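Morning, I've got a small favour to ask if you have a moment. It would help a lot if you went through both lines with me. Thanks so much in advance, here it is.

***
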Amino acid sequence: MSNSDTLVFKALKIVAWVIFVGLCIEAGGLLVNFVFSIYSPAFVENLYQKLDLSGIYSQSKWAFFSMYSFILVIAFLKAYLFYILIKLVSNFDLAKPFNEFVSEQISQISYYTFSIGLLSYLARQSAKSLNHQGFVTDSLNPFWADSQAFILMAAVVYIIALIFKRGIAIQNENDLTV
């Protein structure tokens, strides 16, 4: 392993931490806004990131809470996904990468990535359905714009997880024969 590889790995670890902190701030901000909107419905027009859902709230509280629940769950899943990634890179041994812990973490990353993609797709379809019923849901689109990318990324990460599992099996066979 060269020094440049180690340096790149450390830089990626820092980037993962920065993204994790940003996602935690976003999820926390959305959660605090949600709690405030329950106790003070006037707060609905000034949500996190200048999100104004007062039109949806005035038309149907059920639609507001279901759409906001999608936003919250997706935000928390993204934060948890990066938590798993940070656990992986913090305990990753570049000299001996094939072990059960790494394989399990990569598998979890693929499952959570797929969950985010699937929930984002369901949320986008629900928003489209509400849009056909007269609700204005255009401001919600940034929260689930990349559902197909998450599903595709989940497939790629799943293949990597399978490769790691096979690598561990080969490594264990080699350890037994020596």
